[in-house]
Amino acid sequence: IVQPSLAQSQNSHIEEIKRLVEQAKQQESQGQRRQAIETWQQVLAIARQFQSKKIEAVTLNYIALNYNAISQPQEALKYLQQALPIMQKVREPMGEATTLNTIGLTYFTISQPQEALKYFNQALLIWQQEGNRLREAATLMAIGIVYHSISQPQSALKYLNQALPIMRSVGDRMGEATTLTNTGRVYDRIS
What we know:
Structural class: mainly alpha
Helix content: over 70%
Number of helices: 9
Number of strands: 0
Radius of gyration: 19 Å
Shape: elongated
Largest sheet: none
Mean pLDDT: 93
Low-confidence stretches: none
């Protein structure tokens, strides 16, 4: 009996991961979030078996996003807190910033604005360092929204006013409109 080589074994697992990722994304698009979580869990098991840290971290993020989508933010945080140190260890700054943003959003969802600000500000620094202007603007807007929610209109305006010209410069019309809408809400509250 011929034993499959390690390379053959890894290739078959890569194909299995691709198939499962496609399945999970299809489940997500059909609103089958719990099934998607189960499928992502299968991806996670394979990633861990083959010690593929980057795939593991990305998969943890997808699991968390699905838990957020079904209004289970505490469960999402468990997975995000596992993903963050892995993203940092594999030196994946964009993935790290995405994870930090998602943690910030999750804390905002559960009414912990100070924790949300802590993570959004960490993400903001990375977006700026990486030169990702669109994500920088989106994070500035998120910070502005958090400040607005805790009745700090001047801080909210400071961040929203930084986001607006960036949204315009990158041509994100939807982001520009959303920033203007949020700025209007702040002015409406203080008038």
